[in-house]
């Protein structure tokens, strides 16, 4: 099965998250509220910002 998690930016700047409700990788999100999903995404972004950097010259992501 391909990864069904998808993020889409709407014209108003908001984001829409979707996934296959039967996907075993993401079905734990079926019972989460929109607020819980938003908090989870924000935590993941902050984690990656602290643990990765982008090399502007090469455009590559570097891990410490």
Structural commentary:
The protein is α+β, with helices and mostly antiparallel strands and 64 residues long. It folds into 2 domains: 1-31, no CATH class; 32-64. The protein has one helix at residues 34-51, and strands at residues 6-9, 15-18, 53-55, 60-62. The strands form 2 sheets. Strands 1-2 form a two-stranded antiparallel sheet. A two-stranded antiparallel ribbon has the order 3-4. The mean pLDDT is 84.
Summarize this structure briefly.
28% of the residues lie in helices and 22% in strands. It has one helix at 34-51, and strands at residues 6-9, 15-18, 53-55, 60-62.
Beta strand count = 4
Which bin fits the share of residues in helices?
Answer: 25-40%
Output mean pLDDT.
Answer: 84
* Cross-sheet strand order for the largest sheet: 1-2
Question: End-to-end span in angstroms?
Answer: 31 Å
**Backbone shape:** extended
Low-confidence stretches: none
- Hey, roughly how much beta strand do the residues contain? 15-25%
Provide a count of the helices. 1
Question: What keyword list fits this structure?
Answer:
alpha+beta, 1 helix, 64 residues, 2 domains, extended, two-stranded antiparallel ribbon
């Amino acid at each position: 099965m391909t990864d069904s998690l998808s993020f889409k930016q709407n014209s108003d700047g908001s984001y829409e998250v979707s996934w296959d409700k039967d996907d075993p990788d993401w079905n734990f999100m079926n019972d989460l509220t929109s607020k819980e999903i938003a908090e989870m995404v924000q935590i993941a972004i902050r984690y990656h910002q602290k643990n990765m950097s982008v090399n502007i010259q090469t455009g590559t992501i570097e891990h410490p």
